[in-house]
Amino acid sequence: MGLQKEIWQDHIAGNLFKNNEFLLASTDAGQYVLQGKVVHIPQAGAVATVVKNRSAVPATVVLRGDTDVTYSLDEFSTNPILIPDAENYELSYNKRESILAEHELSLREALANNLLVTWSPNAATGLVLRTTGTDVASHLDGTLGNRKKLTVNDLKHAQLQLNKQNIPMEGRYALLSADMFQQLTDDMTATQYRDFSAAYDVQNGIVGRLFGFNIMMRGTVVTYNNSALPEVRPEDAEAEATDNDAVLCWHVTAVERALGQIKFFERVGDPTFYGDVYSACVRMGGRKRRGDAKGIVAIVQQAA
């Protein structure tokens, strides 16, 4: 039985980032996870002050004030699944994968959606830009009205903001929803699209490169409200008519992920279900690595 649990836990771990490769474009804090539930990271205090051509001694002695970064990992669990005659599937990778496929997909989506919201800046404390293109009907379910399209220049503006923050060029990423990706490519010239496509790397989830950003795409990214200072909406919030889609741009050192415990549960030979019942639980979390959200930019749709 122990071997069976290990096989299933390894299977879940091995597929956790499948189709969500953008999660790997972040700083991994897994080494700081304690007991699979809490992240505890020692933080060095202020760097030493440097004086040019010191003229007075002794120098002032200061005590470095070190701090700790601590946060709990969220728990994500699947609803139990019933598998009759489990012995027929236990040693078959393909059959085992097909049985858990839908549950793993839901688990992966929940983890990814949660981290994207955690990484996203709010206008009051971070950098939020607005789209500037021509008017187009809103594509988000449950929304009404028109929005400004995403343009090539909008992404160029995001590049400018990161340049002004002295963020390294290497390691920049931009995640677009399928609709925003279509708007971006429609706005490209033939030459821009040719150069953009040359960076296509399906293994790492990169669909192109533009203005220093490795462009990645998924069905949805994050949603913002339409306040004067836009705020990201919770991943489980019901859609509002004025919600706006957004592009998330970041540097790998600006965001963090931490994977904790992965547990697999089983009840073999359950007499009430006439079979074996299984479920899984994963702990995962993350954060913006700076309080001022430096290194992260959101491009939010502008209501037309």
Textual characterization of the structure:
This protein has 304 residues and is an alpha+beta fold. The protein has one domain. The protein contains five helices and 17 strands. The strands form four sheets. Strands 7, 10, 11, 12, 13, 14 and 17 form a seven-stranded mixed beta sheet that branches. Strands 1, 5, 6, 15 and 16 form a five-stranded mixed beta sheet that branches. The longest helix has 27 residues. The mean pLDDT is 87.
Please give a handful of descriptors for the protein shown.
single chain, 304 residues, alpha+beta, seven-stranded mixed sheet, 17 strands, globular
Question: How would you sum up this structure in a few lines?
Answer:
The chain has helices at residues 2-14, 93-119, 152-164, 178-186, 190-197, and strands at 27-28, 33-34, 38-43, 67-72, 74-77, 81-83, 127-130, 135-137, 146-148, 172-177, 206-210, 213-218, 222-224, 244-251, 255-270, 275-288, 296-300.
Would you tell me the structural class of the helices and strands? alpha+beta
Q: What is the number of helices?
A: 5
Indicate the overall shape.
globular
Number of domains: 1
Question: What layout of secondary structure does this protein have?
Answer:
Elements: H1 2-14, E1 27-28, E2 33-34, E3 38-43, E4 67-72, E5 74-77, E6 81-83, H2 93-119, E7 127-130, E8 135-137, E9 146-148, H3 152-164, E10 172-177, H4 178-186, H5 190-197, E11 206-210, E12 213-218, E13 222-224, E14 244-251, E15 255-270, E16 275-288, E17 296-300
Parallel strand pairs: 1-15, 7-17, 10-12
Antiparallel strand pairs: 2-3, 3-4, 5-16, 6-16, 8-9, 10-14, 11-12, 13-14, 14-17, 15-16
